[in-house]
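tool_call: predict_structure(chain=1)
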Amino acid sequence: MGSARNSFLLLLVCAARAFAQIDPDHRELIQVGYNGALEGHQPLSAYVFYYVNHPGFLDHTNLTLRMAVAPTYIDSELGISGALGENTGVGLGLAGGGFADSYAEIREGTYLPSESFFGHGGEVRASIYHLFNPGHLIPLNGVLRGTARYSTYADSDTDEDFQLPHNRVTSSVRTGLRWGGREPVLFPRLAMELSIWYEGQFRTDDDSYGYGDRRVEPYSHLFWAQGTLVYTLPDSGHSFDLSLSAGTSINADRFSAYRLGALLPLISEYPLSLPGYYYQEISADQFVLLSGNYLLPLEHTRRWFLNLNAATAIVDYLPGMEQPGNSLSGVGAGLLYAGNSWKVMVGYAYGVDAMRSHGRGANSIGVLLQFDWGKAKRQGFDPTTPNLWRGFQRVFGLFGA
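tool_result:
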């Protein structure tokens, strides 16, 4: 893995932006994800964060606080329902911290610490959320978001001859339509989404960097769409998750390209997962990605599941990041335990077309964990369960409580 300083702390928090509308449900979740390669040298691929969504914040029925907190980063938004009319809300966001803007250079399956660097930053944003079809079973929401982000860069194990990008401000505008949606949870039982998005990024600094061989583009335009269906059969408990996403871009660079790889489902709002690959191993200016996941119960209580997943992509590589072959696939399997408050999966993945020093093919292992802290508190401290309640009283009594 290299030195601790060399391993980027990819403890990013994007789940706070997982909805194109104000989330009406109360949530308190702890999320952990890790992906480790069994060959080659990769940057650290992991996330750890606490996610809370609090409708009725400060006893105001139209305020919702959404926050995700990681060891090095925080992302928050205050949603104001009905701020611009009965079906139109406003979100005011603030985020910042360390390592969120770090960049890992990976070319032809080789991680290059000498051309990678740390990045830190913060942002403010304002969003407008509009519900177009109130009263319908499947909501159709529109979003318009403006963001201003300041990024600063620092050496990690970067080569002394490698020129870092200049610190800069990136302004962006994002708009889209989302029909349906997907909760920010691990392995939801039911979800449906059709969405289409545009994002424009505009930078105050458009200089060259590196060895003079790469450039920060003054503007980039991204267009993407996704369709998702998650369904659990009520009688058997079998569950499937199918997703098709596609994106294209104008004037993309290393900071705005689509980056595919690894199986970290909550690392971003739209993770471009390829089992068996390094996280963000593939840089593309266009892509089509088809992925599927199947959960098979192993016993009648439906606590233990066999998880099977696969993904395949066709990509047009970002110039300078090409490699032989435009088709990439990966497969994986894992063992999932789903309790009342816990979901834990340990899995294995094989990157069929991943490039490594020995040729094609790469192996990795991963761990995914979700702890529903809100549900655990309700169950653990419910006085209607006297035996458990007395147990807590006795434990705390040992400490003089």
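agent: The longest helix spans residues 386-397. Proceeding to next step.
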